[in-house]
Design goal:
This protein has about 325 residues and is an alpha/beta fold. Helix content is about 40%, strand content about 20%. Helix 2 packs across helix 3 and helix 2 crosses helix 4. It is globular.
């Protein structure tokens, strides 16, 4: 087996703002895993240091270590053996995820089947997705909400913790209409007392859930116990023991943070065993990362809308158009 890596930077069509900072470009690592049979699989690493604390240089070093570890293996090494060798060389989930994706893509191509068919016999054909509204002023937020409604989305996510939250949330509700599910994402901008105060003030708008109002297992649990709105875990999911903590009603899973498709499915099983719901989201990933998340969401038959309608924010061609708030799961062999 041979692993090759290409590092690139992709511009965003417009600045992306969240509580963890402003983003104008995205760094992606495209990997190709090729076997002696000539079949190649594609994977992707998409670290976002302001979000997950993982730098591009750290991922580059890990993938270089993975390439050396893979080159040292026998050609008949199994997928689990290959992944274990990568973890032994550099146990960085974002880098391991890229290799895991490439293994699944290669497996699908060899079998002539999409990855979902390798995962389950009962995968969904489409994944419902939410629209994301990051505008800082009421007028643009309202316009984005109206556009999402016209496009057939049934759920919108509003970034909060950025100032004038009440005004923007009210504007979005007014233009999106009463039937639209309204989800808030604070990216851990608040402490417990601020979170309780803000959520209680915003709850009359009719909220589906609030994602990561605070960081930390116990802080999330404290907020959940005091507010009349469902709480979802996102960034905190990376903490040891978080997935089994039952500190939130739902958990937002990201393939890169989990360490690949295999680990994402295992994480989902753990959350569900603890009584929670799961949904998938992108950290502004590239096409391969989005494809991997779509296959996971379809295999899991996720019911909550997923945050995977994000490729339009990058200066890239989007192979996954959203139609009436849904993305069709790729049916070609492999990931996409």
């Amino acid at each position: 087996m041979r692993l090759s890596v290409a590092r690139r930077t992709v511009a965003l069509r417009e600045a992306h703002r969240a509580a963890h900072g402003k983003l104008t470009e995205r760094e992606l690592f495209d990997v190709v895993l090729e076997g002696a049979d000539g079949v190649a699989g594609r994977g992707e690493a998409a670290p976002l240091e302001s979000y997950d604390g993982v730098s591009g240089d750290l991922v580059a070093a890990a993938l270089a270590a993975h390439a050396r570890a893979i080159a040292a293996l026998d050609d008949d090494a199994t997928g689990p053996q290959l992944l274990e060798a990568c973890r032994q060389a550099a146990d960085l989930p974002q880098a391991v995820a890229a290799v895991d994706m490439a293994l699944w893509d290669r497996g699908g191509r060899r079998a002539g089947q999409p990855v979902t068919a390798l995962l389950t016999d009962e995968a969904a054909a489409e994944v419902e997705v939410n629209a994301t509204i990051g505008a800082l002023d009421r007028g643009r937020a309202a316009d984005a909400a109206a556009e999402a409604a016209r496009a057939g989305f049934r759920c919108v996510k509003v970034k909060v913790g950025l100032g004038d939250d009440a005004g923007r949330v009210a504007a979005v509700r007014a233009l999106a209409g009463p039937e639209m599910a309204l989800r808030l994402d604070a990216n851990g901008a608040w402490d417990v007392e601020d979170a309780v105060r803000h959520i209680e003030a915003l709850a009359p708008a009719g909220l589906e859930l609030v994602e990561e109002p605070v960081h930390g297992i116990e802080a999330l649990r404290a907020v959940r116990e005091r507010v009349p709105v469902r709480i979802a875990m996102d960034e905190t999911a990376a903490e040891h023991g978080a997935l089994a903590s039952a500190a939130a009603d739902a958990v937002c899973l990201k393939v890169g943070r989990c360490g690949g498709i295999s680990a994402t499915l295992a994480a989902a099983a753990l959350v569900r065993a603890m009584g929670g719901e799961v949904y998938l989201a992108s950290a502004l990933d590239g096409p391969v990362g989005i494809a991997a998340a779509l296959h996971c969401a379809a295999a899991l038959n996720v019911e909550l809308p997923c945050g995977l309608a994000t490729l339009g924010q990058l200066e890239l061609d989007d192979p996954f158009p959203v139609v009436a708030g849904r993305i069709a799961v790729p049916t070609a062999p492999g990931l996409l």
